[in-house]
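Please decode residue identities from the backbone states below.
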């Protein structure tokens, strides 16, 4: 049970807070950093080893997490010297297992990570993506027209999308096929995988999920954490 956590982002959407503090160490409700919550959840779900892919303010993350023994985990680090996007950093890790959990370091969720891994193994997929249904409200009246003749109008409609949770299970062979130490994002993986007929499956989840890298989600996490923290830990 191996997990890789992407913890190298600059957290530009949360500036100025992330100017001197890495995004994964942002505290939730003034209590635990989001990364510590994730590490405790991984331990709870049976993971024993975690690799942190770090870059921006890496020394702070490494000082905080150390070797992971305070959480009963074995933690090691992969240093990204130049931006490699979401999937590219995995090409720097030499000893990936046959399949592994990959996730962003700024996710607050009550998903059981071992359930995602089990679904991946049972399906025989190459890549499994945790998905969550998000609603997006438009703050404008939306008009559709043809030849400048207005056909439909909706006042501030709400659209529903299935979005990536930033939590995946990936087979090592997928990473072995990539060029080493080159930028390659999750978007590239999805588009190339669809084009090449890769076996990629969705894992829909309807529990709690927030991407605290988004200012609105970070504020919401701070508001709701106290009443929901038993669901996370």
């Amino acid at each position: 049970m191996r997990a890789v956590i992407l913890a190298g982002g600059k957290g530009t959407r949360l500036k100025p807070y992330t100017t001197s503090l890495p995004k994964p160490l942002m505290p939730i409700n003034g209590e635990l950093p989001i990364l510590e919550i994730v590490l405790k959840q991984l331990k709870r779900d049976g993971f024993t080893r975690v690799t942190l892919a770090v870059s921006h303010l890496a020394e702070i993350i490494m000082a905080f997490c150390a070797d992971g023994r305070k959480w009963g985990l074995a933690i090691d680090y992969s240093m990204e010297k130049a931006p490699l996007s979401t999937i590219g950093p995995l090409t720097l890790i030499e000893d990936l297992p046959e399949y592994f959990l990959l996730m962003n370091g700024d996710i607050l969720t009550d998903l059981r990570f071992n359930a995602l891994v089990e679904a991946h193994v049972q399906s025989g997929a190459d890549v499994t993506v945790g998905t969550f249904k998000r609603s997006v409200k438009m703050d404008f009246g939306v008009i559709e027209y043809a030849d400048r003749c207005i056909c439909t109008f909706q006042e501030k409609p709400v659209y529903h999308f299935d979005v990536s949770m930033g939590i995946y299970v990936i087979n090592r062979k997928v990473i072995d096929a990539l060029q080493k130490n080159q930028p390659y994002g999750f978007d590239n993986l999805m588009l190339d995988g669809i084009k090449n007929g890769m076996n990629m499956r969705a894992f829909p989840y309807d529990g709690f999920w927030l991407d605290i890298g988004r200012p609105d989600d970070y504020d919401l996490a701070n508001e709701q954490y106290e009443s929901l923290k038993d669901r996370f830990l």
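Observation: The mean pLDDT is 93.
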